[in-house]
C-alpha cells in the first residue's frame, strides 16, 4: 500500500508536470471506484489544474474552471492497498474496455500527457472522488494530524497517546489519530524506536515517547526525501529498498544481525526484530487476532 512518503512523491511529481494544464478528458473505467456523483466527473473537462496536495494518503488535484468561481472541482483519490498511478508523457489512444483492464480512471491533459489509476487483484478498494472541497471526502474529514507538519511536536504526540490502552502498532496505523502512516512504515518506525508492536500506547514512559517521536519523524522525513523527484514507476522499488524490517522476513536485521520475524494476521502481517524490539521474545502468530486491525 502506498503510504505518506510515496504519496508525497506522487504529489510532487504531479504538481510539477500538471499545474497549468487543462483536463481534456476524465474517463472512469471501473464505476465502483467513483464514490461521488455531484459534481459529476464530466465537470473536470476543460478545468485547469492549479495545484496538487496531499492529505494523509489522499492525493488532491485542485482545478479552476475560469467561469468566475474561486475554484473548480477537486479530483481526489486514494490508492488503497493495490492501486497505483501510471504516468504517460504521451497518453495512449487505445480505448479502455471496462472490466477487461486494471485501469480504474484515465485522465488526459492538454499537452497530450496524462495518467491512469490502476488497481491489481480482485479486491477493489481504490477510491476516486470529485468534490468542491477536499473536506467533503469522509476519509479526509476524519484524518488526524500529519506527523511531518511543523506544528506536530513531541508534546502533541504525547497527548495523542495519553490514555490509549491500544497497541502502539495500531495507534500508528489509525488515520484518525495520525495521518499517513500505514503497515510498512509503522514497522520501520517501531524498529527504529526499539519498541515492541504490542506495547500499549498509554503505558509508554517519557523516554519511550521521546524515542518513538524521533523515530517516527526521522523515518518519515528520510523516506519522503528518498521519494522526492522520482517518477511513479520508480517509487515502489525505492520504498522496498529503504525498508529495514518490513517485507524482510528471514533476513538479517541490519542493526543486530538477528533474524527478522513476522506475525501474520487475517489480511496482513507485521515484521520486527526480536533482539532490537522484544528482548529476544518471539511473538506468537496472531492470524486469528483482531487487535491490530
UniProtKB/TrEMBL annotation:
Residues 2-126 form the Formamidopyrimidine-DNA glycosylase catalytic domain. Its EC number is 3.2.2.23, 4.2.99.18. Keywords: DNA damage, DNA repair, DNA-binding, Glycosidase, Hydrolase, Lyase, Metal-binding, Multifunctional enzyme, Zinc, Zinc-finger. Its cofactor is Zn(2+). The keyword Lyase applies. The keyword Lyase applies. One of its GO terms (biological process) is base-excision repair. GO terms for molecular function: 8-oxo-7,8-dihydroguanine DNA N-glycosylase activity; class I DNA-(apurinic or apyrimidinic site) endonuclease activity; damaged DNA binding; zinc ion binding. InterPro entries: FPG_cat, FPG_N, H2TH_FPG, Ribosomal_uS13-like_H2TH, Znf_DNA_glyclase/AP_lyase, Znf_FPG/IleRS. It catalyses: Hydrolysis of DNA containing ring-opened 7-methylguanine residues, releasing 2,6-diamino-4-hydroxy-5-(N-methyl)formamidopyrimidine. It comes from the Bacteria. Residues 244-278 form the FPG-type domain. Belongs to the FPG family. PANTHER family: FORMAMIDOPYRIMIDINE-DNA GLYCOSYLASE. This is Formamidopyrimidine-DNA glycosylase. It comes from Microbacterium immunditiarum. The lineage of its organism: Bacteria, Bacillati, Actinomycetota, Actinomycetes, Micrococcales.
Amino acid at each position: 500500500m502506498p503510504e505518506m512518503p510515496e504519496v508525497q512523491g506522487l504529489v510532487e511529481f504531479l504538481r510539477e508536470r500538471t499545474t497549468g494544464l487543462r483536463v481534456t478528458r476524465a474517463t472512469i473505467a471501473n464505476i465502483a471506484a467513483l464514490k461521488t456523483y455531484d459534481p459529476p466527473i464530466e465537470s473536470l473537462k476543460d478545468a485547469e489544474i492549479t495545484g496538487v496536495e496531499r492529505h494523509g494518503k489522499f492525493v488532491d488535484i485542485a482545478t479552476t474552471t475560469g467561469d468566475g468561481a474561486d475554484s473548480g472541482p477537486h479530483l481526489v483519490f486514494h490508492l488503497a492497498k493495490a492501486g497505483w498511478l501510471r504516468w504517460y508523457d504521451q497518453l495512449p489512444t487505445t480505448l479502455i474496455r471496462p472490466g477487461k483492464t486494471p485501469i480504474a480512471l484515465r485522465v488526459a491533459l492538454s499537452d497530450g500527457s496524462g495518467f491512469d489509476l490502476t488497481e491489481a487483484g480482485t479486491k477493489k478498494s481504490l477510491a476516486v472522488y470529485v468534490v468542491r472541497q477536499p473536506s467533503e471526502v469522509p476519509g479526509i474529514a476524519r484524518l488526524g494530524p500529519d506527523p511531518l507538519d511543523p506544528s506536530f511536536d513531541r508534546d502533541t504526540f504525547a497527548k495523542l497517546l495519553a490514555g490509549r490502552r491500544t497497541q502502539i502498532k495500531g495507534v500508528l496505523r489509525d488515520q484518525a489519530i495520525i495521518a499517513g502512516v500505514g503497515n510498512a512504515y509503522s514497522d520501520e518506525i517501531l524498529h527504529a524506536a526499539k519498541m515492541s508492536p504490542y506495547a500499549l500506547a498509554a503505558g509508554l514512559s517519557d523516554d519511550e515517547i521521546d524515542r518513538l517521536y524521533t523515530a517516527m519523524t526521522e523515518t518519515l522525513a528520510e523516506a519522503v526525501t528518498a521519494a522526492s523527484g522520482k517518477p511513479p514507476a520508480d517509487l515502489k522499488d525505492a520504498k522496498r529498498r529503504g525498508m529495514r524490517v518490513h517485507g524482510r522476513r528471514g533476513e538479517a536485521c541490519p542493526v543486530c544481525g538477528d533474524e527478522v520475524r513476522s506475525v501474520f494476521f487475517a489480511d496482513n502481517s507485521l515484521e520486527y526484530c526480536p533482539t532490537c524490539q522484544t528482548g529476544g521474545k518471539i511473538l506468537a502468530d496472531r492470524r486469528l487476532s483482531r487487535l491490530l486491525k
